[in-house]
Design brief:
Blueprint: H1 7-23, H2 31-37, E1 39-40, E2 49-52, H3 57-60, H4 64-73, E3 81-87, E4 90-95, H5 97-110, E5 125-128, H6 143-158, E6 163-167, H7 174-185, H8 196-213, H9 219-236, H10 240-263, E7 269-270, H11 277-289, E8 294-296, E9 299-303, E10 311-315, H12 323-338, E11 342-346, H13 352-364, E12 373-376, E13 381-383, E14 386-387, H14 398-414, H15 423-443, E15 451-452, H16 455-458, H17 466-482, H18 499-509, H19 511-521, H20 525-544, H21 553-576
Parallel strand pairs: 5-6, 5-11, 6-7, 11-12, 13-15
Antiparallel strand pairs: 1-2, 2-4, 3-4, 8-9, 9-10, 13-14
Helix pairs in contact: 1-2, 5-18, 5-21, 6-15, 6-19, 7-8, 7-9, 8-10, 9-10, 11-12, 12-13, 14-15, 17-20, 17-21, 18-20, 18-21, 19-20, 20-21
Length: 585
């Protein structure tokens, strides 16, 4: 059932419903259905709100343009409706600026607009995102996953959903063994006092390059034996390598936590690959005993060929597990531990086959919640000169990038405020702008598109960037302060009549509808586009409708309240993307 949260659309939907009962008593459209069909009209000269009459044609046996004409005749001006007009197959509405503006701005400025119940269903949903590996260095490519997951968690919570946010770092496996191997046999450097996690990531790259260089040499066999010995000791959870693993793992976790703190991201639960290592093997062995899995050439797994998914190996012939082994066990653990109803995995598109296999295995072993496991895939991030790889070392380390971005922001945008602003404000503003650039840049594209990260492009104050939207907000905030906005203003909204004023009001009214759309589609892209369009509309309004030189004091105050409403929509919208809006820039 739809929640009719948009006060304006609800009132229009009720008028349409009453007109339908009068003119077409047998029409089956409910107020819920009517509400869903209403949208903003594309041409303000033809109307502000539009209702398509196509769905009524079959049951009324009338052409849509005839239907819209009959409906328009029976809807008179009242409250929010200034005029109902038939425009071909559409029933269009011109809204009453005075009634509409008062209703909307009071809701926004009081904060009630941002507290509405938006969805009637609240399935408990777990969102797993940001799965970095320990013993590697986080880079800018990891931020698409992090920003996407963080935005969806925020959007769903705003939409009154019960959300559990979790992360699943990879803290076991061959990549860890390679790093420990290099530290034990080849490292000549002293461990640094600080930034140990970043240093460890560089050690991993050196280890990988050295192992590749020694392939085919006399050292290859010895290297393989040493790596195997390390892995076995880690599995037994005792010995010098296990102790070294615990120490170095913590260095990586400290780096991850500092990154998440910078990004303003929190998780309800940290699952670790290492915590499902042994339990996952035990689960698979038990499933094999139950006859739900088979053995093929020494390996245990499930034949999924009839589903065009090949053979899913869960225990290799040497007795070790794989990622699929752990993901099967982890899925069961998630539902048992949290009682969730939906499980969303945010992982890049290269893992689509892996998850198809895992979900099919879960289904065939009789795990009822398999149907509620969903892989939300996205394409990866590249630099202007190509793909990144921690293994090869051609990455932009995230903390280095953040430092570069904040230095660039201070030099290009904030240096002029030195002396007027405190150093603390300059630093915090630079941090907010850098975060805004990354979060907006990583969420504004469709998930299926690759992203090319370009620091200078993403930091521009014009164009479709996070800093541009932050600047719009700061500009409005400064304007309201300068022109004396206060909650005691008594605007006369009947004086708002310009198209740019009405367009801005209509755009503001659509905010919650956009959030619901993003929630339902599991994508923040529409919110990014909405905020950019809102910013452009405000700039058009400001250029066409002077606030400080308005013809009357009442008109000035009305425009000032409208500007304040836009700033609050912008602030809340950016917040859902994980972007803090600076008070001034």
């Amino acid at each position: 059932m739809t929640v009719l949260h948009n006060t304006i659309l609800k009132e229009i939907a009720q008028n349409i419903e009453n007109s339908l009962k009068e003119n077409f008593p047998d029409a089956a459209l409910t107020i819920d259905s009517i509400y869903k069909l209403i949208s903003l009209a594309p041409n303000m000269k033809m109307g502000h709100i539009a209702f398509p009459c196509f769905p009524l044609a079959k049951e009324t046996k009338m052409a849509p343009n005839m239907i819209s004409g009959k409906l328009a005749e029976s809807i008179s001006a009242n409250g929010i409706i200034q005029e109902a007009k038939s425009v071909g197959p559409y029933l269009n509405f011109f809204i009453n600026p005075a009634h509409f503006s008062k209703l909307l701005t009071e809701e926004i400025i009081s904060g009630e607009f941002f507290k509405k119940e938006l969805c009637s269903e609240r399935p408990k949903t777990m969102i797993e995102y940001s799965q970095p590996n320990t013993h590697k260095e986080m880079h800018v490519g990891h931020m698409r996953n992090l920003c996407l997951g963080n935005a969806l968690v925020r959007i769903k919570k705003y939409a009154n959903q019960d959300v559990v946010a979790v992360t699943y770092p990879g803290d076991s496996g061959t990549h860890v063994a390679k790093c420990l191997w290099y530290l034990k046999y080849h490292n000549k450097e002293a461990v640094p006092e600080t930034d140990k996690g970043s240093w460890l990531g560089k050690i991993y790259t050196r280890a990988n390059l050295l192992l590749e260089d020694q392939l085919g040499s006399d050292q290859e066999e010895q290297n393989r034996a040493q790596l195997t010995a390390i892995l076995k000791e880690l599995e037994s959870e005792s010995g010098e390598y296990f102790d070294l693993w615990k120490e170095t793992r913590q260095w990586s976790l400290d780096l991850m936590k500092s990154t998440y703190k910078w990004a303003d991201v929190e998780f309800d639960r940290w699952f670790f690959e290492s915590e499902v290592d042994t339990p996952s093997l035990e689960l698979v062995k038990d499933l094999y005993k139950q006859g739900k899995l088979i053995k093929d050439d020494g390996a245990v797994g499930m034949n999924l060929e009839e589903d065009k998914l090949g053979f899913c190996i869960l225990i290799k012939s040497d007795g070790t597990g794989l990622y699929a082994t752990k993901d099967v066990a982890l899925a069961v653990k998630k539902f048992e531990e949290y009682g969730i109803e939906n499980n969303i995995y945010i992982v890049d598109t290269r893992q689509s086959f892996h998850f198809a296999q895992v979900f099919k295995v879960l289904e065939k072993i009789g795990f009822e919640q398999a149907k509620n496991c969903h892989h939300l895939q996205y394409n990866f991030v590249e630099l202007p000169d190509g793909a990144m790889s921690s293994r090869k070392g051609n990455i932009v380390p995230l903390m280095d990038l953040i430092s570069q971005m904040q230095s660039h922001i201070k030099k290009e945008y904030l240096e002029k405020y030195a002396g007027d602003w405190s150093e603390e404000e300059i630093n915090s503003t630079a941090q907010k702008i850098a975060r805004g650039a990354i979060n907006y840049g990583m969420t504004r594209f469709d998930n299926n598109r690759k992203i090319v990260f370009d620091m200078k492009e993403w930091l521009k104050l014009d164009g479709e960037t996070g800093p541009y939207l932050q600047y719009v907000y700061a500009r409005i905030n400064s304007l309201c302060e300068k022109l004396g906005y206060s909650a005691q203003l008594k605007p006369d909204f009947s004086q708002l009549s310009q198209d740019s004023e009405i367009a801005l009001l209509l755009k503001c009214s659509a905010f919650n509808d956009i959030v619901v759309q993003c929630h339902e589609k599991n994508s923040p892209t529409a919110l990014c586009s909405y905020l950019f369009e809102l910013g452009k509309l405000f700039n058009s309004f400001y250029a066409e409708c002077s606030i400080s030189k308005a013809e009357t004091q009442e008109l000035k105050e009305s425009r000032l309240v409208l500007a304040k409403s836009v700033s609050l929509i912008m602030q809340n919208g950016l917040g859902l993307l994980g972007i803090e809006a600076p008070q001034r820039m």
